[in-house]
Amino acid sequence: MTNPILSNWTTPFEIAPFNAISDDDFAPALEQAMQAHNAEIDAIADNPDAPTFANTVEALEAAGEQMDKVLSVFFTVAGADSNPAREELQRDFSPKLAAHFSGISSNKVLFQRLADLWSRKEDLNLTDEQARVLMLTHRGFVRAGAALEGEKDARMQDIKARLASLGTSFTQNLLADERDWYMELSKNDLEGLPAFVVDTARAAGQEKGVKGPVVTLSRSLIVPFLQFSPRRDLREKAYRAWAARGANGGETDNRNISAEILQLREERAKLLGYDSFAGFKLETEMARTPDKVRDLLMQVWGPAKSRADADAEILTQMMQEDGVNGPLEAWDWRYYAEKRRKAEHDLDEAALKPYLQLDRMIEAAFACANRLFGLEFTPLDVPLYHADCRAWEVTRNGQHIAVFIGDYFARGSKRSGAWCSAMRSQAKFPKVQAPVVINVCNFAKGDPALLSYDDARTLFHEFGHALHQMLSDVTYESISGTSVARDFVELPSQLYEHWLEVPEVLAEFATHAETGEAMPQEMLEKVLKAANFDQGFQTVEYVASALVDLAFHDGDAPADPMAKQAEVLSQIGMPQAIGMRHATPHFAHVFAGDGYSAGYYSYMWSEVMDADAFAAFEEAGGAFDPERAKALEENILSTGGSREAEELYLAFRGRLPGVEALLKGRGLIAA
Ligand SMILES: [Zn+2]
């Protein structure tokens, strides 16, 4: 019998036949798919004919169809509806998959064919998109080290292996420091803490085998503790432990590890012919150069620091009125900021919630997509992997565009957070395929299900990613939808969040669950204002970390990263009552792996763009300006990675993004 994952899917729109697949099917399907993929790769590499775009690049695009099927089904259920068997499979699959894909990117025979095509690219008569796919494929192999020979090749393999093991040690040390520390709270110590913090602290105590409540170093517990506890002595003790993670001396100290990682990254970049690791990392990004990143961060830094300095004065005054003398410290900021928030923006979350019904917010996201891009959504009855999943057929002028699946409710089998993935990406080669896109969230179930304002933003955010997939209109799958630079990929999602804030959208869709009345204007304004609270602090703690990350990877690697960190902070005049969001010994984004090294800036980069892009609508005919919507689809939502991100943005906006809209949006300069 054919494995149901690898069979022909005869379901509507060829959605994976989830009800026919059992967990026992995954391992044999993956084995078979990897073998088939390897055979396809070997056939391309060993082809006796001279390399052509068709027999090499297009053949690579077409290869791996079975892998796509297995991985899309498996990672959908492993993330959104796991169980012990699926967790076990995931542990088993991840090293196998890493080895499989690294085997392909270090295949020298295959690389020779790509290098040959690359050297003759002008004579190949390629379309713009084909030239782009050839460039990206060739560059991917070069960056993985496929062009290195002999000693250099061997050294590269050693560096990669050592970096992988250092990254793992960094993570484990951090976890050990986080696990080992806790502070018991007596009954008196609970004063001032809201019930949810006390509950979390009790649950944490149980987990540690302690009778009473404890504070741990988990962000979801220590941050509210620092926010609400009036006990300055306890806040100081907890904060100091939190800030010292990874720098406690002994076996779990990460300071030497971070120095070695930076040295090896620099050596790796130089082996590949780059000046620095930042040069290597940023080559594939929209930002391109360290100078452009620094320039953008510093444009935000100035106004953020001014705001933070002014806020610090107000908070210091509040502290003195409390009878505490001396300077405001890092363990004081959140506590006094929370007091100030309560006084200035008393937003009653409980009164807000009935206005944000999940079903109405889904309708709102769809209605905006209809007004902007003409998309229509019709419920679709197909068996999916969980009864809570819903599906819609997406059409435009009667033409099928995509299938959209929403899996919105939290459950124990789902990992935390929210995400969007394509179970099938749009492509026209080797055959035309329409996308199947899923949004997964973790909203509380209810009847009716009600959202917080943050939840509603998340819904719009993930739907923005979904639009990027669904409106994709390219030939090759490798550059389809969200296959764009990392510092560009959050543009469509963060941009879409802005439509939730459009007053006419909230007026129509934020209706009270019981009375059906629209949200009062006054409440709407409070919501929008509260979102900007304490942005001086938030921006400063983030930008400081981003600047240190950049300084580590631009130019020679520092022998002493802690000294380098101190130097950067002193140069920018870091306010003394604000800590870095992530200090070096626990900066997992940068040291646990390569993902955000020389790349932590990208959150801010995307936010600058989304604010600037939405301002383009406001400057034109408003949030639903049809010309702007058309330009957005033509130049950003449909184009995937077929052109450079900067080129796409220029085509949409007519100029590069400026920071003004972001600074206004965060309330750091006057609107
Ligand atoms: Zn996102």
Plain-language structure description:
Helix content is 56%, strand content 6%. With 671 residues, the protein is an alpha+beta fold. Helix 5 crosses helix 6 and helix 16 packs parallel to helix 17. It is globular and about 85 Å long. The model has no long low-confidence stretch (mean pLDDT 95).
Topology diagram in text:
Blueprint lengths: L25 H20 L7 H10 L2 H16 L3 H22 L2 H12 L8 H17 L5 H31 L2 E2 L10 H14 L5 E2 L3 H10 L3 H12 L11 H17 L5 H6 L7 H32 L8 H15 L4 H4 L5 H16 L2 E5 L9 E7 L2 E11 L9 E6 L11 E8 L9 H18 L20 H10 L2 H7 L11 H10 L4 H19 L7 H12 L15 H4 L10 H18 L6 H12 L7 H9 L6 H6 L6
Parallel strand pairs: 5-7
Antiparallel strand pairs: 1-2, 3-4, 4-5, 6-7
Helix pairs in contact: 1-2, 1-3, 1-4, 1-5, 5-6, 7-11, 9-14, 13-14, 13-21, 16-17, 16-19, 17-18, 18-24, 21-22, 25-26
In short:
The protein is an alpha+beta fold and about 675 residues long. It is built from 27 helices and seven strands.
Note the main sheet.
5 strands, mixed
Indicate the mean pLDDT.
95
Q: Quaternary status of these chains?
A: single chain
Counted by DSSP, the helix tally is 27
Q: What low-confidence regions span 5 or more consecutive residues with pLDDT below 50?
A: none
Strand content: 5-15%
State the end-to-end CA separation.
65 Å
Strand line-up in the sheet with most strands: 3-4-5-7-6
Main features:
671 residues, alpha+beta, five-stranded mixed β-sheet, two-stranded antiparallel ribbon, 56% helix
